[in-house]
Amino acid sequence: MKFGKVENPELIDFTLPKDHPDTQVVLNRDGKKSPLNVYVGCAKWNRQDLKNFYPRGTKDELEYYSSQFNCIELNATFYRIFPGEQYTKWYDKTPEKFKFFPKVSNDISHLRRLNDAVYPIVDRYLEATSNLKEKLGTIFLQMHNNFGPKNWDRVVRFVEYWPKEFPLAIEFRHTDWFNDEKVSEELYHLLESNGIANVLVDTAGRRDMLHMRLTNNEAFVRYVGANHQSDYDRIDDWINRLSEWHSQGLNNIHFFVHQNMELESPLISAKFIERLNKKLGTNLKIPKTLHKTNDTLF
User: Record's Pfam families (predicted)?
Assistant: First the structure.
């Protein structure tokens, strides 16, 4: 994942911004005394990307990956709509409580850009994706960098069309969604009133996407490391912030680790899970890696 990549990450201020004031309002209103649901994973299970993760002789990558992690941010579905049978195969290969968080097809988000022609494609996408049954987590829609607020009417129509039985998160990348306060407030209200999660992206070159505004009881975080020692310091800040949100009522944490070079993702994920377990008292399995979790590659 090269989005937000910079040449000198040591020059970036990675401090997490203060919360948007309405985040606490949402959590206080929607938070209930229910079990904390935490899912932490990588973006893909491809052996070529996740070096130093698969033991020699691993025959089925998804089967092994799902024995170590409790979820996957399924980026493969961005590039094509797989037949329903493929989803069924993925379902059958994974443990009982494993979850998939698939990305919406780029035919919907990037090529047709939420125009009126996308709705039959949305139906086809959801029909196939529903084969994941109870293992289907939040689906997320990622819009192109140049998809700005001039397309507001398309966003409204899409949100109104989306079947509410499928949890949805949306990632907006154009800066004007966040830099114009009137626009951002209208956007947050739309997401909030429809129970849609506002994706938080932590990447070096786009600090403006860390608006720290939750719109429902779900922290959907896409953490992009810079293949730099600072990656490990940054996860502590996230653990502290998630702990604060949990104390305010947050019940759903969905945290996905990316890298500009993905080989480090399992190691960062393992370290994140280890520290999160200590902070929140969770009991997530710490993935095995070919490096010890107290090591780094830097």
Answer: DUF72
